[in-house]
User: Fold these one by one.
Assistant:
Number 1:
Amino acid sequence: MNVAEPGIVIEDLRKSFEGFNAVRGVDISVPQGAFLVLVGPSGCGKTTMLRMLAGLEQPTGGQIRFGDRTVATATGGSIAPGRRDAGLVFQSYALWPHMTVQANIEWPLKVAKQPSGRRKARVREVLELLGIAQLASRYPGEISGGQQQRVAIGRMIAPAPSVLLFDEPLSNLDAKLRVETRSELVRIHRATGATSVYVTHDQVEAMTMATHVALMRDGVVEQFGSPDDLLSDPASSFVATFIGTPPANVIPAVVSGGVARSGGKAIASLPPSVPTGPIDLMYRAESLRLAPGPAEGVLAAEFAESTPLAGRFLVSASVGGKRLSVIADDHPRVLAGDRIWIGFPGQPDGLFDSATGAKVLLEWAAGSPL
Ligand SMILES: Nc1ncnc2c1ncn2[C@@H]1O[C@H](COP(=O)(O)OP(=O)(O)OP(=O)(O)O)[C@@H](O)[C@H]1O
């Protein structure tokens, strides 16, 4: 994939805080112009990664390169934040309240001692790119949260850095504005030609914005690839249940004689290469169906809720205390807590080791659907 110029190369990156390992050996490489999203649950080390990229945190191990420049190493010689040719935008906008929009965007250019004429021209260009020229002489207190975030982005891109770093920049916006700003941000990223790194805990943001996704868990990258790679071929049950709208279902089962049973009922037949014992079965919501009553390959479930979704329904129900999602053509016309029936296809969409969560490679017979 990487014939293009290297944008960012992260090698065996580590960070510990007083003996606590927040980042435990991360290797990621993306080409110039990529939009890399670091996503994962709270505390997985995303922000620590971004702070190391920005130069606000010194790595305990490994190194970071921007293009052909090494910007951070554990052994010293790291480049100071202001000299990395990188811009950073946080979740809080931190604009100067006593400066106009225009002055806020101009500020980093003044700090860089650019001549006035060049500064003014660049500020105009950035205001145009962001579609906020009409706000130029307002103060931050006189514009909306979404507009303030745009100004913060304008201030970041004004010096034309080659790396853009975003830390949950949309989390203070309301849901509708967040969706609109997502695509706007990607447009701005592309217009700058920079390589971006974007931190979020929202997998939908990751899947819609990224060219490359690193899903992190407990300080390591659980899977790195394109959004499509993670969705179509999750490397672990953690990835399968974190990514997707809705994420895939993973249910525990026990295999014996090539048959997988959940709660004692046979729901799938597996190739003979799958060893006897516990296993986790993955089913996408669209692979499951609502069944009219008990039958082979059908489990009883407790109905939770049903949400209309693009002309169909996303039905949630629990089986043995585990919540499952099913895409159905109709509402089950029952109340929360009532019994419904969920039908399983003969073969699951994937298998995971029940102890480690790692994907189990399958050798199905020729012509099988998997
Ligand atoms: N300065 C610090 N001192 C001690 N521990 C820290 C420090 N910074 C982060 N940590 C710990 O390192 C781990 C990773 O934190 P980090 O902020 O990188 O996670 P995150 O994935 O960004 O989480 P969130 O989405 O909640 O911001 C957490 O357990 C956190 O408590």
Note: The chain has three domains: 6-237, 238-283+346-370, 298-343.
Number 2:
Amino acid sequence: MSAEPLLSIRDLRTVFHTDDGLVRAVDGVSFDIGRGETVCIVGESGSGKTVTGESITRLIRTPPGEIAAGEIVFDGQDLTALSDEALRALRGDRIAHVFQNPQGALNPVYTVGWQIVEAIRLHEDVSKGAARDRAVDLLDRVGIPEATRRFDDYPHEFSGGMKQRVSIAMALATNPDLLIADEPTTALDVTIQNQILSLLDDLQTEFDMSVLLITHDLGVVAEVADRVVVMYAGKVMERGGVFDVFEQPSHPYTRALLDCLPGRGDGAASIGGRLPSSTDPPAGCRFHPRCEHAVDACREGEQPPDYAVDGDDDHVVSCVHYEPGGDPSVVRGGGDDAGSGDAVDDDGGDGRGSGAVGTPPADRTLRAESLGDDGSDADREDRA
Ligand SMILES: Nc1ncnc2c1ncn2[C@@H]1O[C@H](COP(=O)(O)OP(=O)(O)OP(=O)(O)O)[C@@H](O)[C@H]1O
Ligand code: NI
């Protein structure tokens, strides 16, 4: 039996009241984050990843947003029951956020050192001198060269990658139990991305924290996740240990996502069709209009419940083909469990074929596609 998770989200529903109707951005999401664990939420743009992460500490603007239902239990305490004031105290103390654009986390008119000192002193009664020493130490630990000298620099004097390091130092200032990082590397160029990811990995161990990493990039997931939550149109399609999900992707959506990874499936694949309307989603499984395995049962009623994959309660999938008495081989193909790729896995079913898991090198290509390369110049300035 595993210990009680640090964070436990149950049936979270977050909606936005808009002129076009009610947007069910997060529609019944459940997952846990264990202590010291990295959980990745992955899914296409618009699937509800950010809204999930921001619902945890109530960063959702209300109105138009509203956390309509669900439990968010953090270290034994239901956050949805806390006052705004109590939650504000928790945010940036025990739970910290890092965002895609570090610019937003830093105030342009103050030096980075001063901002980290303020973050420390806001949550802890320490002298200015002690806070200053800690801030320099934090800058040093997130890999800012000559931290003592750079303490007095302003945000604009740092490159994109260095700025993100500073915002991570700010997030760590209060020694949080949970760090929620929403696409923290997407705005950075590829080499810097990898540095930031491995930095987060190192810091997690060093600070003994849990990390919720939000990304649309399965390559990143393969590198850092312990567990994965695959979201689509506000719903969780599949979740489980990273090894299980990569080795035995069970929802057709997960399989389609993995097929888009170079080195798996046919690599160049993209998923046909697009996300359904956020105000008027289809009945049944939200993915059914794009699913090659859809049958009548997929088109009616609610999103299917979570079914255990091969009797494993830690690996669940929301797909009718996995209901008791169902036939998952419809999705997986006759006993072939690795990848969805008939194209790749000709080795017949032991699930450890050439295209199988955790082939992280492939991720570079995927990531490179979605990026600009402006970061590298800025980084050169940094060293100047
Ligand atoms: N303030 C808002 N008002 C109305 N709808 C919103 C608002 N914020 C988010 N949404 C909607 O909620 C849904 C989920 O958005 P969210 O930003 O969580 O997606 P995401 O998975 O993080 O996507 P991305 O990968 O692009 O960041 C989308 O349909 C989005 O349009
Ligand atoms: Ni997002």
Note: Residues 49-50, 182 surround nickel (II) ion (ligand 2) (CB under 6 Å).
